[in-house]
Amino acid sequence: MIKNLVCQLILATSLLLLSLNVLAEENSLPLVPLPSVIDYTKGDGWAGAIGLKLESLAVYSGSDHYVLELKPEGAIQWRKGNHLIFWEGLDLNSTEFGWRGLILDIWLMQAGIRHETVLPASRTEKANIDNFPHRGSHIIGFIEAKRSIDDDWENWASGRISAGPSNFGLLAEISAGHNFIRRLDNMEAELVIFSTFGSKDNINNYFGISESDSNASGLEQVNLDGGYRSTGLKLICRKHILTNIQIVAKAGVEFYNNNFRKSYIVRDTSETSSELAVVWKF
Which of 99, 102, 173, 264 would suit a FRET pair with 65, their CA atoms being 20 to 30 Å apart? Predict the structure, then answer.
């Protein structure tokens, strides 16, 4: 059933993007020349991509159990000058809808909403944690400012704040990046270092064990403090194949606050992830 749903979604999105592609204009540069900032447009109008990605990741933040998953990947975008409206991601855990715009050539601003799942029961069961209550998902809002440190976005720094329901709380991220391969043989690569900080609600939502969790699962209740959450490193590469096909490779490592080990569900405070995607750009 799930495979059929994914196939139908890919087919429907492909047909939609094919129809929108007729309206797109050609021969325009992206908003910023960074592989971490998705921009499939070729000028004013509609554009997008559809494809598949193979992803290796922990079943939830703080788990030592990893899975390899094949997921749909894609985006739909509409651009007018230095402003872009986007829907990016076909995986429900990371779908974003919003706006981004280039201001004075050195500021990239974006804002929107994002869907995130938090400790679903199916994930904790894969990590051999029985009877842990399903923690559900959130629709959260975000705003981000990214500034070029030089004239050509070779180096940059950014700040991002996400907020949602009371049980999600606030999450802040600061990051800096270096774009060290610039249009070399149709390939782009970028290295990003980041740190995150969360409110008490946010950190306990991902890593804590509430009284109701304890009663259901038998695990000891843990109430963590807010503040420093993690530091990590990401590498993003994009390789342009032919005219409309891209290969995207990502790898990362994240180190969580060692204090989170107080919680039984936090089995490992270091986490790695990798991803390989092939997308057809319209």
Answer: 173
